[in-house]
């Protein structure tokens, strides 16, 4: 594996200064619910970036809009598919039609948008990859990126970037491209967004206000318990806490490589790779989840009922795990149709996964990889096209208040739009996203402060190459999938089952995987200089 000696230093500097190029959400390719699909709608629907960023984007916009029409007539018409995890949208056909109008004179392409609910995402994409089904753009993240690269599922984009996306490459933060390479090659294009992560909970504000809960007392997950008990006792039909496997991110360790495969480092600045399932913090978390399940705090059958979309929109969930960014509660309030408030349970922290947490890849089965790369280029440089994909058709799904601020059309209530995919953190350049009128006009300034406050990981810029252990990782992933939902929601007794879970992963090759991760991290640190 080849490493850039300056990469870690550069990534750290960018994570601290950040200023003008990155905004949005990150992470979770293994989210259980559409709440986490909308979950991460963090930076979501917005654009009020700094003057420099606007000028930069305006420049690249002009290039994209003025340069491509001349070339488009010489291109044969093609249809490109776009796959991302999230809820299906009633008006998707209208959005496709509008995007097709914009794309005809730019790259002579049409699109088909495919939203796959979070609960079925991994299975759906894995089956498509295994069967060799042709498809084009596909969302990927730190949880599955290296595994799919090792499988040969994604196209090498290194040369395509230069050939088909020069505007994108000229304006994107170079650390995003260098820090997500595997063996010196780009297999996905990172979404331009924030460079730090923070975890916590999203709470139903109406219920917080009704019972006058003091959120300043909530510093840990355990601090929520009295509130959950109140909701359980007094709010029939409301789920006190939506149980999911995502809660395991609340232990103080940093994942590197595929999320389902153990092998983490502590958040204390040391770099010894350990199995998180054998740490005291994980044991305490599993104990809490078992107790909460026994107390009836979770939804019915939490190990199998993973999609919280309907409950979120109905306002029948009090508390839910969430990855946080400044103002995410306002964005989700817009999508769910009722007020929310967020509470952080961890400090902002910059990891390698925050570079690769949300990306767009092109399937190796794509029949038109060049045109697919041109579409990615436009999603990073063309504000009108990007906002059509993430916000819908102007006049139908939103109306402009000003150049970069939008609101719902008259007569449409929050949470009732026929197109509100919550996918802005999964597509293109969030600096180009319009800002909803309920959002803070200083949102992007808050993002800069958020990034500047983040503690950097000692391995920022490191990307694990899973190829040497791809067979072991595949076997471990199967074991993980058989146990994780029951363990994380307390529906199976961790004291009885955890030893068997760990033993099966070790028999599948866990110790070899951990040794390989340690070897690569040590080499990265030695070369970082």
TrEMBL record:
InterPro entries: Bact_solute-bd_prot1 (IPR050490), DUF3502 (IPR022627), PLipase_C_Pinositol-sp_Y (IPR001711). Residues 42-68 have a biased composition (Polar residues). PANTHER family: ABC TRANSPORTER SOLUTE BINDING PROTEIN-SUGAR TRANSPORT, ARABINOSE-BINDING PROTEIN-RELATED. It comes from the Bacteria. This is ABC transporter substrate-binding protein. Keywords: Signal. One of its GO terms (biological process) is lipid metabolic process. Residues 409-470 form the PI-PLC Y-box domain. GO terms for molecular function: phosphatidylinositol-4,5-bisphosphate phospholipase C activity. Residues 1-26 form the signal peptide. It comes from Paenibacillus rhizovicinus. Residues 42-73 are annotated as: Disordered.
């Amino acid at each position: 594996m080849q490493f850039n000696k300056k990469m870690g230093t550069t990534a750290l500097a960018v994570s601290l200064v950040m200023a003008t190029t990155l905004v949005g959400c990150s992470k979770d390719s293994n989210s259980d619910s559409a709440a986490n699909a909308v979950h991460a709608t963090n930076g979501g629907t917005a654009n009020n970036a700094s003057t420099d960023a606007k000028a930069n984007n305006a420049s690249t916009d002009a290039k994209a809009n003025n340069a491509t029409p001349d070339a488009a007539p010489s291109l044969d018409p093609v249809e490109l598919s776009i796959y991302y995890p999230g809820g299906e949208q009633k008006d998707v056909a209208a959005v496709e039609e509008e995007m097709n109008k914009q794309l005809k004179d730019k790259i002579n392409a049409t699109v088909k948008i495919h939203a796959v609910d979070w609960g079925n995402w991994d299975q759906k994409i894995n089956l498509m990859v295994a069967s060799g089904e042709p498809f084009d753009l596909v969302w990927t993240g730190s949880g599955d990126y290296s595994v799919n690269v090792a499988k040969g599922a994604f196209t090498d984009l290194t040369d395509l970037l230069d050939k088909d996306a020069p505007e994108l490459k000229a304006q994107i933060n170079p650390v995003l491209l260098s820090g997500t390479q595997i063996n010196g090659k780009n297999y996905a294009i990172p979404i331009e967004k924030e460079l730090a992560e923070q975890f916590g909970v999203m709470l139903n504000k109406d219920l917080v206000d009704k019972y006058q809960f003091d959120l300043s007392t909530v510093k840990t997950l355990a601090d929520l318990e009295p509130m959950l008990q109140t909701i359980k006792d007094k709010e029939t039909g409301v789920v006190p806490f939506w149980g999911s496997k995502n809660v395991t991110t609340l232990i103080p360790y940093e994942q590197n490589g595929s999320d389902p495969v153990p092998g983490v480092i502590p958040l204390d600045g040391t770099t010894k790779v350990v199995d998180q399932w054998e740490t005291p913090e994980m044991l305490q978390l599993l104990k809490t989840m078992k107790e909460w399940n026994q107390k009836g705090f979770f939804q019915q059958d939490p190990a199998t009922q993973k999609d919280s979309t309907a409950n979120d929109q109905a306002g029948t969930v009090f508390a839910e795990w969430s990855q946080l960014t400044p103002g995410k509660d306002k964005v989700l309030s817009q999508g769910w149709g009722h007020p929310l408030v967020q509470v952080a349970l961890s400090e902002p922290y910059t990891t390698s996964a925050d570079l690769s947490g949300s990306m767009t890849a092109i399937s190796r089965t794509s029949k038109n990889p060049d045109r697919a790369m041109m579409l990615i280029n436009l999603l990073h440089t063309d504000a009108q096209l990007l906002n059509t994909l993430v916000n819908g058709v102007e006049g139908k799904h939103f109306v402009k208040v000003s150049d970069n601020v939008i609101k719902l059309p008259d007569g449409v209530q929050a949470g009732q739009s026929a197109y509100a995919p919550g996918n802005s953190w999964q597509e293109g350049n969030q600096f180009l996203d319009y800002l909803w009128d309920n959002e803070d006009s200083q949102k992007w300034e808050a993002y800069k402060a958020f990034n500047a406050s983040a503690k950097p990981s000692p391995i920022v810029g490191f990307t694990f190459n899973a190829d040497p252990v791809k067979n072991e990782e595949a076997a471990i992933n199967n074991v993980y999938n058989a146990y994780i939902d029951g363990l994380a929601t307390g529906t199976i007794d961790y004291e009885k089952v955890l030893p068997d879970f760990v033993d099966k992963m070790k028999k599948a090759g866990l110790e070899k995987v951990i040794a390989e991760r340690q070897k690569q991290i040590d080499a990265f640190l030695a070369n970082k200089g």
